[in-house]
Design a protein that fits this description.
GO terms for molecular function: acyltransferase activity. Keywords: Acyltransferase, Transferase. This is GNAT family N-acetyltransferase. The chain is an alpha+beta fold. It has a single domain, classed as Gcn5-related N-acetyltransferase (GNAT) (Aminopeptidase, 3-Layer(aba) Sandwich), CATH 3.40.630. It is 33% helix and 27% strand. The strands form two sheets. It has a four-stranded antiparallel beta sheet with strand order 1-2-3-4, sandwiched between helices. Strands 5-7-6 form a three-stranded antiparallel beta sheet, with helices on one face. Strand 2 (52-58) and strand 3 form a beta hairpin. Helix 1 crosses helix 3. It starts with a strand and ends in a 12-residue tail after the last strand.
């Protein structure tokens, strides 16, 4: 069973451990110092930033992290990607990692992505789409998106998380299903 809750400051020790795992560090390339994790995850944990960071639990045990935000809340990111692909107003993006190395390669990623996309339609009733850029070389990530029902809509030239990588990204999208709750009145 997949559940989640907002990341709390007490989770930072676990996040540091996950970010240091080779399979995560390869793509997230994040400083794992106590100060850096507090700096980068603290504002969302305290509700001071519009992004949402979630600790994903599988059968009650922490296994993954999902970040979700609206492109509109991050103008620089919106501008960079918006020059290269259509980004409808209120579109949402997610980022994710399987932190527990014992859970990698078990098909957990697509299930988590599907669950978060479904929750997005409820949590963000005006979001028309979830759009996810992913580095082209990160096959495991873009295959998880495809298995979760997102479709590749193009490519983008974006700054990579890891400076050793080139700028090639695939862009994936899934639209709000017809009939799913939205922020507009329906007759």
């Amino acid at each position: 069973m997949i559940t989640w809750r907002r990341v709390a400051e007490a989770d930072f020790v676990l996040l540091r451990q996950w970010l240091a795992q080779p399979h995560v560090a390869r793509w997230w390339h994040h400083d794992t110092s106590e100060e850096a994790v507090a700096r980068d995850f603290g504002p969302a944990a305290r509700g001071q930033e519009p992004s949402e960071d979630f600790l994903v639990l599988v059968d009650g045990v922490p296994a993954a992290l999902v970040q979700r935000c609206r492109f509109d809340d991050y103008p620089d990111y919106l501008a960079e990607l918006g020059r290269q692909t259509e980004l409808p107003d209120a579109a949402v993006t997610i980022d994710y990692l399987i932190g527990d190395p014992a859970r990698v390669g078990q098909g957990l990623g697509p299930g988590i992505i599907r669950a978060f996309v479904a929750a997005t339609w409820t949590d963000h009733p005006d979001a028309p789409a979830v759009i996810v850029p992913v580095h082209a070389a990160n096959r495991a990530s873009w295959r998880a998106l495809e298995k979760a029902g997102l479709r590749r809509i193009g490519t983008a030239d974006l700054a990579p998380d890891n400076p050793d990588d080139d700028r090639a990204h695939y862009v994936y999208r899934i639209d709000r299903p017809v009939g799913a709750a939205s922020g507009t009145a329906q007759d």
